């Protein structure tokens, strides 16, 4: 594991009850890069993403084999608290899911409950909203319900909410699939900006999006990692025929 | 061909009209029945209602005077039942829906709870007598009555709370957990507040039942007659449902007290509605700002 790798999977298998969803995955994610996970529906890319912050723990009957090293420790080791892992590895979901609270309280919720230092809460909220490029739109309505925002604004709010925890890694599960093109463009710009400070791993169904925003791309097919390389390489001259067929739209 | 089509359309419209007609009629019958009962009670009971009736204790072997101790007793018992049933019911529902591993045992427990909802109230009354009044030595008291009524409405509240908790979107839980917030905090800060309006809606049914039941309090809390107001939760109280029962079956002069009986029924209905109204107002207050 070289120093540019922030999280390393080795020989990871994942099962939903008896059926295997991921087969022998070994890969490392690079620090301060955007890595895109692509592949047809059901290929296991979202499953993999949710493995990284132990969100799959919430589903009964799941089982993990292999090792996922983060900060030199297997995050599936017995003595690791998944709650601690999730503080360091944040997540943005497919559909914007703000809490039915005010904009301010959506952002302050996590920090308020998880840290003892509440002095700079106002500052933290402002910073996080600025990082998510939402501050100018909401600074006068911080005490209004987040449910009144548009879909794109809600998604940026969810990004700000995750950023407020100051995570090391931000996982994004098709964050723009429920948004219009303008909102999508804004989120993509935002991702470009965020990679300076965070490591971003994003699942997307949109080939152009993967090509536009990611540095690395991994192609999955029925639970297998088919090809993993620099995005440029994957989209110009992939090693595998399978990858080429997929990105050119010949199947999937 | 064309006329066949027309006929088939007519037939379909006829079926639709028939269906809507039946549904409307059912609704109308229910409304009339309810309205009829209410009207009957009001017509027969309104003459007994006066300021003295609701503020004075009964006099002359309960053939004259008011029913104030019974009103107060019912309010105490209902509040007591809520105080017992609501926290216990919500806690059980949280365990069943949020924490317990779904499986055979939990299914069995849920069936048990549903059976409990069907147990006749007099059985709860006897249980209260045996356990709270005698074994725990609480005596016939507000405490024993509240506990018995609390247990009586527990299945209703658990059922309502389970449904309400399940209706909170899973995405809220995921969002909270993904921030590194613990499961308990997620439940307490996100799931429970969003389920509260639903829990209260379902609980209103239980509250109405607690206020109106006679059998469970007959052995555990209700006094035949006491002009004295309770000084502590270990005192007996009069209660409206039991008072009605007494006046209508065992009074010294059943015929002469008919207006008082109807008056008491009317007051009981009003008390139940008021308690429901308070719950509805609280629900409305919580519901503000809570939509998804």
Please sum up the structure shown.
The complex is a heterodimer of chains A (252) and B (292). Chain A has 252 residues and is an alpha/beta fold.
Total individual domains of chain B: 2
Percentage of residues assigned to helices of chain B: over 70%
Radius of gyration of chain B, taken over Cα atoms and rounded to an integer in Å: 24 Å
Provide a count of the helices of chain A.
10
Instruction: Quickly give the structural class of chain A.
Output: alpha/beta
CATH top level of chain A is Alpha Beta
CATH superfamily descriptor of chain A: P-loop containing nucleotide triphosphate hydrolases
Runs of chain B in which pLDDT lies below 50 for 5 or more consecutive residues are none
In terms of DSSP E residues, the strand content of chain A is 25-35%
> Termini of chain B, distance in Å?
51 Å
What does this structure look like?
Chain A has one domain (about 5-245): Rossmann fold (3-Layer(aba) Sandwich). Chain A is about 35% helix and about 25% strand. Chain A has ten helices and ten strands. Chain A has helices at about 45-50, 80-90, 105-115, 120-130, 135-140, 150-165, 180-195, 205-215, 230-235, 240-245; strands at about 5-15, 20-30, 35-40, 60-70, 75, 90, 170-175, 200-205, 215-220, 225-230. Chain A has a six-stranded mixed beta sheet, sandwiched between helices. A four-stranded antiparallel beta sheet of chain A has the order 2-1-4-5, with helices on one face. In chain A, a hairpin with a 2-residue loop joins strand 1 and strand 2 (about 20-30). Chain A is globular, with a radius of gyration of 18 Å. The model of chain A has no long low-confidence stretch (mean pLDDT about 90). With about 290 residues, chain B is mainly α. Helix content of chain B is about 75%, strand content about 0%. Chain B has helices spanning about 1-45, 50-55, 70-100, 105-120, 120-135, 140-165, 170-180, 185-210, 215-220, 240-250, 260-285, and strands spanning about 60, 65. In chain B, helix 3 (about 70-100) runs antiparallel to helix 8 (about 185-210). The longest helix of chain B has about 45 residues, at about 1-45. The chains are: A alpha/beta (about 250), B mainly alpha (about 290). At the A-B interface, helix 2, helix 3 and helix 6 of A face helix 7 and helix 8 of B.
């Amino acid at each position: 594991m070289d120093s540019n790798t922030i999280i390393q999977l080795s020989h990871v298998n994942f099962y939903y009850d008896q059926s295997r969803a991921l087969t022998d995955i070994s890969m490392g994610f690079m620090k301060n890069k955007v890595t895109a996970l692509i592949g047809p529906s059901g290929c296991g890319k979202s499953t993999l993403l949710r493995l990284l912050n132990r969100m799959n723990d919430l589903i009964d009957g799941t089982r993990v084999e292999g090792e996922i090293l983060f900060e030199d420790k297997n995050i599936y080791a017995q003595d690791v608290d998944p709650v601690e892992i999730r503080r360091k590895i944040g997540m943005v979901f497919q559909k914007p899911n703000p809490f039915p609270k005010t904009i301010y309280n959506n952002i302050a919720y996590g920090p308020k409950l998880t840290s003892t230092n509440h002095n700079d809460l106002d500052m933290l909220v402002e910073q996080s909203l600025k990082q998510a490029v939402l501050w100018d739109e909401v600074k006068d309505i911080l005490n209004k319900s987040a449910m009144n925002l548009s879909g794109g604004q809600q998604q940026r709010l969810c990004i700000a909410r995750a950023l407020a925890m100051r995570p090391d890694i931000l996982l994004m599960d098709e964050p723009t699939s429920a948004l219009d093109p303008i909102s999508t463009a804004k989120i993509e710009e935002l991702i470009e900006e965020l990679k300076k400070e965070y490591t971003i791993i994003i699942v997307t169904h949109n080939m152009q999006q993967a090509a536009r925003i990611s540095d690395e791309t991994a192609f999955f097919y029925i639970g297998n990692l088919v090809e993993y390389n620099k995005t440029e390489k994957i989209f110009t001259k992939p090693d595998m025929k399978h990858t080429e067929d997929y990105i050119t739209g010949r199947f999937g | 061909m064309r006329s066949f089509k027309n006929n088939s359309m007519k037939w379909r419209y006829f079926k639709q009209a028939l269906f809507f007609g039946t549904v409307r009629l059912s609704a109308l019958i229910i409304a009339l029945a309810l309205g009829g009962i209410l009207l009957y009670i009001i017509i027969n009971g309104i003459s007994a209602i006066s300021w003295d009736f609701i503020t004075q204790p009964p006099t002359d072997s309960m053939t004259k005077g008011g029913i104030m101790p019974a009103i107060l007793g019912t309010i105490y018992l209902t509040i007591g039942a809520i105080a017992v049933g609501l926290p216990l019911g919500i806690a059980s529902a949280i365990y069943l829906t949020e924490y317990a591993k779904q499986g055979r045992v939990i299914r069995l427990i849920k069936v048990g709870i549903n059976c409990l909802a069907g147990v006749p109230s007099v059985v709860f009354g006897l249980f209260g007598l045996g356990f709270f009044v005698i074994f725990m030595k609480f005596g016939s008291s507000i405490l024993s009555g509240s506990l018995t009524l609390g247990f009586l409405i527990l299945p209703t509240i658990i059922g309502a709370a389970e449904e309400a908790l399940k209706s909170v979107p899973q995405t809220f839980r995921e969002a909270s957990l993904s921030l590194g917030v613990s499961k308990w905090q997620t439940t307490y800060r996100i799931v429970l507040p969003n389920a509260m309006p639903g829990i209260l809606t379902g609980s209103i049914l239980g509250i109405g039942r607690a206020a109106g039941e006679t059998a469970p309090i007959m052995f555990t809390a209700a006094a035949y007659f006491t002009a004295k107001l309770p000084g502590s939760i270990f005192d007996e109280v009069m209660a409206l449902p039991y008072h009605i029962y007494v006046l209508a079956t065992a009074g010294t002069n059943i015929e002469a007290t008919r207006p008082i009986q109807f008056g008491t029924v009317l007051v009981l209905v009003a008390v139940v509605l008021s308690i429901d109204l308070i719950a509805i107002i609280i629900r409305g207050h919580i519901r503000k700002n809570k939509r998804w």
